[in-house]
Amino acid sequence: MGSVSLKIGDGTARFRRATICSSAVNGLMLFSVLTTNLFALYAFTWNPKGHSNSHENPLLQAHKNMSLITEQVSLIMKEIESSQKKLAQMEKELLGYESIDLSNPNIASELKTYLQRHVLPLGKDSKTGITEMVASVGHSCSKSMDMLSQYMNYKVNGQCPDDWSLAQKLILRGCEPLPRRRCFAKTIAKVGNLYPFPASLWKPVNDKIVSWSGMACKNFTCLNSKKLSKDCVGCFDLVNGYENQRFIKARGKNDFLIDDVLAMGGGGTRIGLDIAGGSGTFAARMAEKNVTVLTQTLNVDAPYNEFIAARGLFPLFLSLDHRFPFYDNAFDLVHAGSALDVGGKPEKLEFLMFDIDRVLRAGGLFWLDNFYCASDEKKRDLTRLIERFGYKKLKWVVGEKGGSGQSEVYLSAVLQKPAKMELAWKDS
């Protein structure tokens, strides 16, 4: 069963397949018509045993029958109305309307305003079937209502609180995307220390043009003295150390060079995605090769996003639990390191790998750069997962780093997505 949608302007009409809820309502209406007819037939032919009166006025008998029919029809209409309400409630729950109880008095008024449903002025949309516009907010936000209400408690049209660390905590708890706010974010004067592109790629970033609130370190010198992650050791030092030599000078067999990897792509690499890209050095090197790379990162213990932006590159403030906000087959290359091991859980890694595969075009390259294999089991699990996708191994190196009995195993690989993915998946 379907419905007809008229498109105003071109005089054409098209049929649209009915939604589950509309099909259920149509079924209920058909059921009610059949039931009404059956009740009518029953009412006109029924004669109670022991109470029949052959001499009863026919008009009085007909009136009684009509009263019975009216009563039964009224009951049926109530049942239909109740069913429609239940179906509407089911639709709201399926679309996430009721994930947050807006009647709670402890919820910030701004959050209630943001999450308020807005009915479409022309009724149900014929293409999508939706009847209301719903604000986008992470489903896990309902589990952190106190923090979320604190985040949404601000002065409208005023200055936003200096609470980026609170926002990041919410994101890391799965409250992503965050609700929008009607306040002005804190601005930081650039004090004349921004350099033109491409000189900005390798110029030191001034401590004063980033926000240090909520961080243990208050300058880049402090950060460069710490090991922030396996992919970021001294990564904010663009002058001294190894950062300005990465991807053009190898320190071991696991370090691949950008020119070599780009040659494997056959010259078709134009845009890429760097997952957990530290201070943006991979994107900087790619920019020198006329390849545009977006760097996904959070500000965990360091102002990664501001630093990347100061270099004239594109930071993407997004957790790895969030579906990549890109259309299918968008990138020519995806680069990732040890951060690919999301929480150490194989199921989460599999979800992430499928999303990487989704945004990578056929023939594109997946560069796995120095992935830390904490155990042989971890290495086997990752290897089996990659092989199930059917990617072509253009380069595959397993090596050790360190010494004095403290060596660690790392995997580096360049893999090419096959052209026909419908035949690529291999069951293990």
UniProtKB/TrEMBL annotation:
Keywords: Coiled coil, Glycoprotein, Membrane, Methyltransferase, Signal-anchor, Transferase, Transmembrane, Transmembrane helix. GO terms for molecular function: methyltransferase activity. Belongs to the methyltransferase superfamily. One of its GO terms (biological process) is methylation. InterPro entries: Prob_Methyltransferase, Put_SAM_MeTrfase, SAM-dependent_MTases_sf. This is S-adenosyl-L-methionine-dependent methyltransferase. One of its GO terms (cellular component) is endomembrane system. The keyword Membrane applies. It is a single-pass membrane protein; Single-pass type II membrane protein.
